[in-house]
Amino acid sequence: MNALFLSHCQIACEDSPDLVKAHVLVENGIIQAVGADLVKPSHAREIDAKGRILMPAMFDAHVHFREPGFEAKETIASGARAAINGGVTGIVMMPNTSPALDNPATIRSVLEAGKKTGITVLSSGCITKGRQGKELAAIDGMRQLGVTMLTDDGDSVYDPAVLYRAMLYAKEFGMFFASHCEVPELAGPRALTEGPTAYRLGIKGSPACAEEIIIDRDIRLAHATGAHIHIQHVSSALGMETIRWWKERGDVKVTAEVAPHHLMFSEDDIGDFDTHYKMNPPLRTKRDNAALLEGLKQGVFDLIATDHAPHTAFEKSQDFVSAPNGITGLETALISLYDRYVQHGVFGWDLVIKRYSAEPRRFMELSPVPIEAGKTAEFLLFDPQGETTFTKEFMQSRSQNTPFLNQTLRGSIDLVVKDGNVLLER
Ligand SMILES: [Zn+2]
């Protein structure tokens, strides 16, 4: 393959907010050299990266590619194109497809489709058959295909005895559990949080305790069984404090993720039934936003993950209760984190790289991809002076259900490389 010489880069890493100026030489899919005095070999193609930031590509441990079953919303191929467009070169699929990813045959077909995309496509597997919460899924068969994450995402495992049994069984294989936390009886129509907006719109809300109760329940089950529990898409301040409390005890392996939308938006943004602000767990209050942001900075959250959840324009145009939950996130996450936080000094690139690139890879037993000699060339080039307008034409996902639709944000992703191959260049 062709050699690439990226000159005048500012290099970002997970260990320091400072950017290091250097040239970078890539050949045969590997970063061959990094240095301020490097000279471009005559056979290498030069990309002048002056003013731009070179960083490891992102990895998203919570995405919904809707194949098999809901290909009108997203396919594995279109989802991967969306990922690349957002600087993401690896993802973990959630299993709420149709059929559900609860058996080796379906998971094998998903992984095969993933291999044709150019990015790393991993799959989680269901805890229970059909995510019904009753019988255990074919856990051992899925493990043999490399599945490590078990989740019934979209729902909690209703019966704690079923989850307890699954934990005792699967922890022996080194598998871990990712929990969508929600008491269904409290969640009502699962449309929005309990509070002033629900009252104003006349819809029964889902109180934060519906989420917090299961966060605590599932960590307790992990504590009792010795399993590793990962809490998905935490939306409430008290839910986060529950995780912090358990982490500080130190006698249970608990990790957690936060989604960009739960940092950036609150119930106030719903306005008059705007379904681009409808997701599950729902948007809570501005106080929750602020608390979650502090939790991210303090390390309560191990990962940033988008919960990329594409739905067709038709589905999202239904009334607020009927419209499905979820928004897309792969294409907007990195740029919105820059636009909202990094550009204003709220946190540095080091946090973004740690929580949205390095830790998610470690979490899935992959190696991080720092910009260092000898490492795999899996990176992106970010222009902090650029702008991105999230038009329908710009976005590669089959669905454009995002609050950022037609908005212009600061920052652009100009180059995405994986294994030395240029996946995107603009
Ligand atoms: Zn979920």
Describe the structure.
The protein is an alpha/beta fold. The protein has two domains: 104 residues, Urease, subunit C, domain 1, CATH 2.30.40; 307 residues, Metal-dependent hydrolases (TIM Barrel), CATH 3.20.20.140. The chain has 13 helices and 16 strands. Strands 1, 2, 3, 4, 5, 14, 15 and 16 form an eight-stranded mixed beta sheet that branches. A five-stranded parallel beta sheet has the order 9-10-11-12-13. Strands 6-7-8 form a three-stranded parallel beta sheet. Strand 2 and strand 3 form a beta hairpin. Helix 4 crosses helix 7 and helix 7 runs parallel beside helix 8. It is globular. The relative contact order is 0.16. The mean pLDDT is 97. Zinc ion (ZN) binds next to loops.
SSE arrangement:
Blueprint: E1 4-11, E2 20-27, E3 30-35, E4 45-48, E5 53-56, E6 58-63, H1 76-85, E7 88-93, H2 104-115, E8 120-123, H3 139-143, E9 149-150, H4 160-170, E10 176-179, H5 184-187, H6 196-201, H7 208-225, E11 228-231, H8 237-249, E12 253-258, H9 260-264, H10 286-298, E13 303-304, H11 313-316, H12 333-340, H13 349-363, E14 378-389, E15 408-418, E16 421-425
Helix pairs in contact: 4-7, 7-8
The chain binds zinc ion.
The hetero compounds bound to this protein are: zinc ion
CATH topology grouping of the largest domain: TIM Barrel
**How many helical elements?**
13
- Principal-axis shape equals globular
**Count of beta strands:** 16
Kindly, what is the distance between the CA atoms of the first and last residues, rounded to a whole number of angstroms? 20 Å
SS-based class? alpha/beta
Rg, please? 21 Å
- Strand percent estimate: 15-25%
- The CATH architecture designation of the largest domain is Alpha-Beta Barrel
Helix content: 25-40%
Overall average pLDDT: 97
The low-pLDDT segments are: none
| Total domain modules | 2
